[in-house]
Structure formats: C-alpha cells, structure tokens
Amino acid sequence: MSIPNRTIKAIVFDVGKVLIQWDMRVLFAKLIRDPQELDWFLANVVTEDWHFEHDAGRELEDMLEEKKLQFPDYACQIDAYATRFLETIPGHIPGTHELVERLAARGVPLYALTNFAAPFWAEFQPTEPIFDHFREIVVSGQEKMAKPDPAIYALAEKRFGHAGHELLFIDDNPANVQSARDCGWNTHHFRDAKGLEIDLQKQGLLD
C-alpha cells in the first residue's frame, strides 16, 4: 500500500489538453478544405506561437491587424480566430472531469493555472460547470504572464495561499511541468486520465 503524501494540500490543474481538448485545426478545417493548404496555414499564419502571444496578454486587435497585413488573402480566416475561437475546443478530455468530481467530493482544494487569453476565457468559462469546483483560477491573459515563466507560479502560490511544496500541479506540457518542478512544486506530467488517477491514488488523494 502506498504511503499518502501528507505534504500535498491542494491540486492545481492546467485546462487545455488536461480538462478540455484544444485543436485549432478543428476550426480551420471548416474554412480551408485543402489539407496541404490547411497545414501551411497553421504552420505559417495562425500558428500556436502566435496564439501564445495572446495567451500571454498581447492585445487581440493589434495581433489581428498585424497578421492581416502580412497575409491579406487570409483576412477572413484570421478574423475567425477571434470570433469563432470556441470551435477550437471540441470537447472534454476523457476521464478528467470525473476525477475532478471525485476530488471535489473528498474536499480536496482545487485550483487551476492556465495559459488562456483573457477574452476567450471570459467567453469559455461560463460554458463549463466543472470550474465551479475550483477555488481560484489564474489565467495567463489576465495576468499578462504565461507558463513556463516562473513568475506566474510565484503569483499562483500567493493567490492559492499555498507554498509550492504543498501543491500538485498537473499539466500536459513538459516545459510547464519542469518550470513548476524548478519552483518547488510537486508535478504530474499529464498523458491520460488513467495515469493521473493512478498517481493521485499513490499520493493518497483518491481512493
């Protein structure tokens, strides 16, 4: 039988690719039918690196204006990034919402730390009742800093009221996991809900 980790007082979830699916291809495949053109568009126009700038707090209007000047033939698709973003979220990650429900039922304090643009978060959060279980959520776009910057982990500790060694952080991105670990947090590199469930049981956080 595993020995519970008594130092962990709370759990911090990432959102994208841990609680929810996120894939910009889902939206833009509706707008660009040719697969090769779609691949090129996602590699050169609306890229994940460009999207990260918005997650980190850059103003959307400035990003759109700049991008449409670079790629005027794709102005409509670039606008769709702003107006149809929720279509990049096709559903839940299988199993993780159930784990959140079980943890909440046990009274485990739950928090979230997510790279998410502020306007998109304001649009998305009300659609997901699961977030009612979270005591506090730190959103990169609101704070104008993003994972894996150590500063956002320090901010999260203050907001959550726990030192890093009291937190278990769950994230799919290896760089984010490593940064949290460097800040003294306990971590779980998320791959699927079953692996997370096993780890939570080993930590004594789930039956």
Report on the structure:
This is HAD family phosphatase. Pfam families: Hydrolase (PF00702). It comes from Altericroceibacterium spongiae. InterPro entries: HAD-like_sf (IPR036412), HAD-SF_hydro_IA (IPR006439), HAD_sf (IPR023214). The chain has 207 residues and is of the alpha/beta class. It is 45% helix and 11% strand. The chain has helices at 24-28, 35-44, 48-55, 60-70, 75-83, 96-105, 118-124, 140-143, 150-160, 174-182, 193-202, and strands spanning 10-13, 110-114, 136-139, 167-171, 186-189. The chain has a five-stranded parallel sheet, with helices on both faces. Helix 4 (60-70) runs antiparallel to helix 5. 30% of the residues are buried.
Which CATH architecture of the largest domain is right? 3-Layer(aba) Sandwich
Q: DSSP strand (E) fraction?
A: 5-15%
Total domains: 2
The low-confidence parts are none
In short:
This is HAD family phosphatase. By secondary structure, the chain is an alpha/beta fold.
Keywords for this entry:
single chain, alpha/beta, Rossmann fold, 2 domains, 11 helices, 5 strands
List the helices and strands and how they pair.
Layout: E1 10-13, H1 24-28, H2 35-44, H3 48-55, H4 60-70, H5 75-83, H6 96-105, E2 110-114, H7 118-124, E3 136-139, H8 140-143, H9 150-160, E4 167-171, H10 174-182, E5 186-189, H11 193-202
Helix pairs in contact: 4-5
